[in-house]
Amino acid sequence: MAARAPAQTGRMLLGFRKWYYNLCGFNKLGLMRDDTIYEDSDVKEALNRLPENLYNERIFRVKRALDLSLKQQILPKDQWTKYEEDVKYLTPYLEEVVRERKEKEEWMKK
């Protein structure tokens, strides 16, 4: 019975993540998690490194979300971004930018 506990905990954690994802509300506007990251200098640099198609898709989602927000509407439920479909498209680029910035800061200390 003790061997089953981690699997049950994992399912419960996944259920909580899905519940919280839907509670946040950005998915009802068609946004992905990475679309909601605050744009500091690192994020702006990561956005500059995105391939053009990913950047254009992001701009479309943000503009659509702004339009819906101004109209005080949400997308039909079948168009909401699902937890399983939310891809962290910006995170690898952002991690690379942060790593390079830290490396540069270390280099400047020497």
Concise synopsis of the structure shown:
With 110 residues, this protein is an all-alpha fold. It has helices at residues 5-24, 41-49, 52-70, 91-109.
Overall geometry: flat
Radius of gyration: 18 Å
**Beta-strand content estimate:** under 5%
Alpha plus pi helix count: 4
Task: Give the mean pLDDT.
Answer: 91
Tell me about this structure.
With 110 residues, the chain is mostly helical. The chain has helices spanning 5-24, 41-49, 52-70, 91-109. Helix 2 crosses helix 4. The longest helix has 20 residues, at 5-24. The mean pLDDT is 91.
Layout of strands and helices, then pairs:
Elements: H1 5-24, H2 41-49, H3 52-70, H4 91-109
Helix pairs in contact: 2-4
Features:
110 residues; mainly alpha
